[in-house]
TrEMBL record:
UniProt xrefs under NCBIfam families: PRK12295.1-5
Keyword Transferase: yes
InterPro entries the record matches: aa-tRNA-synth_II/BPL/LPL, HisRS-like_core, HisRS/HisZ
Class II Histidinyl-tRNA synthetase (HisRS)-like catalytic core domain segment(s): 10-205, 227-348
GO CC terms in record: cytoplasm
Keyword Cytoplasm: no
Protein name: ATP phosphoribosyltransferase regulatory subunit
Keyword annotations of the record: Glycosyltransferase, Transferase
Binding, L-histidine: D66, F67, T68, R93, Q107, E111, R300, Y305, Y306
Protein's GO biological process: histidyl-tRNA aminoacylation
Gene3D superfamilies: Bira Bifunctional Protein, Domain 2 (3.30.930.10)
Pfam family, one: tRNA-synt_His
Amino acid sequence: MGVSIAAEKAEAERLKAVFAEAGALPLDCPVLQPAETLLDLYGEDIRARAYVTQDPSRGEVMLRPDFTVPVVQMHMSDGAEPARYTYAGEVFRRQEQHPERRSEYFQVGYEVFDRGDPALLDAEVFARFAQVLAPWGLRAVTGDMGILAAAVAGLQISERRRAALMRHIWRPRRFRALLDRYSGKTPVPPSRAALLADPQALDRAGVSVGLRSEAEVAARIAALRADAAEGPLCRSQVDLIDTVLSVRETCTYALEHLHDIAVDLPGLVPAVERFERRCAALAEAGIDVAQLDFEASFGRTSMEYYDGFVFGFLADRRPDLPPVATGGRYDALCRHLGGGREIPAVGGVIRPGLLLELTA
């Protein structure tokens, strides 16, 4: 028998009270969120993960898939600085890839908006979650989206290709497909090769059908031709990205490994130095970084707002379960939603229902 909603809600409120006792301000957010904001952030892909409906007065809306976006909007609208928030409530996510998982469940969160030292704040949030979750014996994993972003930024490629890779950092299969295409590992499809070779391709297309205008089609063909003219990405550059993505060790050894990689990819140095400062801050907060796992690819399938430090707490004895808690830094999201204002932010969420499953 599964965990009851009443029990899950009670555990959510208990965890929320723990964060409130640590100084976080309790708040809540509407269940119905404007679809426009989420679509603008994540594109049409969000429809595969969220429940979308029509409201007579508000237009297209989504059942709340996450708390972080509305919390950021609330803070950027009228929040004080610095601020720490906590919340508890239901979120709704479609589970087409994992039909055995629940599509409606509770989340409890802790979010910090602060202009202080990012390494110290990352460590504060992680240590807070580690303390709260200590009774369950979970395995903590950390990562850093900023390291992969820095590696891509350091590639010797056109800005068009760099932007495409950056856009798909959170979509591993699409990211890999682009790397394979840019390096020439994947051949150009015959239909595209014929299109690029035909200077009159647009004229031969005849009457326009579909949603794209003739100007948009012409721009797309021009972009494909410019990309083809650039030539293949050097294999050594692809190898550097693969080496970064393969880093999967404890923080201490991962730091050494990344310093070695940075010798051949100097653009990585600032991101590795940020990682080093975070490791020092975590150690100061009482975390044994020599035993703390680091995976350079961790967090790439989460919601796309994490752009720096990421972490998760996993129940290794129940590999069928998703992460019990996840979190990270999302400075870029605050810039995007700030309307000209911005503030660094880091936080995370716990799924109380999973904790109850582990103790059942």
